[in-house]
Amino acid sequence: MPLPIPGSLTPTKVTTFRECAFAFRLAVIEKVPQPSNIWTMRGSIAHRVLDRLYYDVPKGQRYENVAREIFESVYQSYITQEPFSSLIEPMTKESINTYKESIWTMVAADFYMEDPNKVEVIGTEIMLETEIDGVKLRGIIDRLDLNDDGSLTVVDYKTGRMPSAIKEQEKLMGVHFYAYLCESVLGSRPRSVQLLYLKEKTTIESHPTERSTRALKIKAGAIWKAVVYACENDDFRPRPSHLCGYCHYSLICPANNLYTERENARPSAAGTHLTH
Ligand code: SF4
Predict the structure, then answer these.
(1) Cβ atoms 138, 185 nearer than 8 A
(2) How many CB atoms lie within 10 A of CB 42?
(3) Which ligand 1 atom is at minimum distance from the Cα of 240?
(4) Which of 15, 34, 240, 265 could be bridged to 248 by S-S, CB 3.0 to 4.6 A?
(5) Measuring from atom 2 of ligand 1, which residue has the nearest CA?
(6) Model's pTM, two decimal places?
(7) Best residue for ligand 1 mutational test, from 236, 247, 257, 262 (most atoms within 8 Å of Cβ)
(8) Is 180 in the pocket of ligand 1 (CB under 6 A)?
(9) Is 23 in the pocket of ligand 1 (CB under 6 A)?
(10) For ligand 1, what atom is nearest to the CA of residue 256?
């Protein structure tokens, strides 16, 4: 039976569909809730603190002690609310402290990677929406900066691990997605898009061009066609990979463990050597 076609594409939906169509079906079509865990909450808290630091505090007053005060207040507000309060309840006092400091370390990393007092912020958490050939594209930009020459820079905070070289190409598709949204809605192609990997204190920077925008349009169109085909034919196949270990749906996925079994069945390098 055909499934309903989603109303829009976002960078997250594109990544999910490319990584595992079955996970896409559960998350986007069936809207099966994804339970929070302390690691996703860590990202939310770090994002919230940086959002407040750049939006609420004027340029020239954004110092580390100010960020720490914001961090303490944001952390306190999370601790009194669900689901965070239940998530940390079983943890020991010591592990809560370690966990809390790991969030602060990510926030403090921003001061190492850039000078917040030199940043002219246009806005934070900006929702942008546009269309390519009838396909609605949507995205939330963490921060939009105005450069000295009047050009724009899109900043996206990353609290997970940095991608491998192959994955980096996929992440860059997200970058060009944001660039296209910006160009289409605000009428100006950003001079650069920066992915700030707070854990590794590393910035991946890309400079969008007319060519990269054209490539994004072609890729987005192809992914949309694949999504429509999958919906019309109810064809969302699971794609077991190392990502199953992090997947919210592993307990209800029919393919759960297939990747582990396949990997375990594969002869080890030593085993291969012995047979020769
Ligand atoms: S457990 Fe693996 S195969 Fe199943 S939905 Fe998640 S990522 Fe896909």
Answers:
(1) no
(2) 18
(3) 3
(4) 34
(5) 244
(6) 0.84
(7) 247
(8) no
(9) yes
(10) 1
Contact 198/102 with Cβ under 8 angstroms? Answer: no
CA dihedral 130, 33, 163, 146 (to 10 degrees): 40
Q: 3-state class of 145 per DSSP? A: strand
The packing angle between helices 38-56 and 93-113, to 10°, is: 40
Atom of ligand 1 nearest to the CA of 239: 3
CATH number of 120-223: 3.90.320.10
What's the whole-number mean pLDDT along residues 257-272? 50
* pLDDT tens digits for range 199-230: 999 998 889 999 988 888 888 899 999 999 99
Domain map (residue ranges) of the chain:
16-33+230-265, 38-117, 120-223
CA dist 106 and 43 (Å) reads 9
Q: What is the DSSP track for 81-100?
A: STTHHHHHTTS-HHHHHHHH
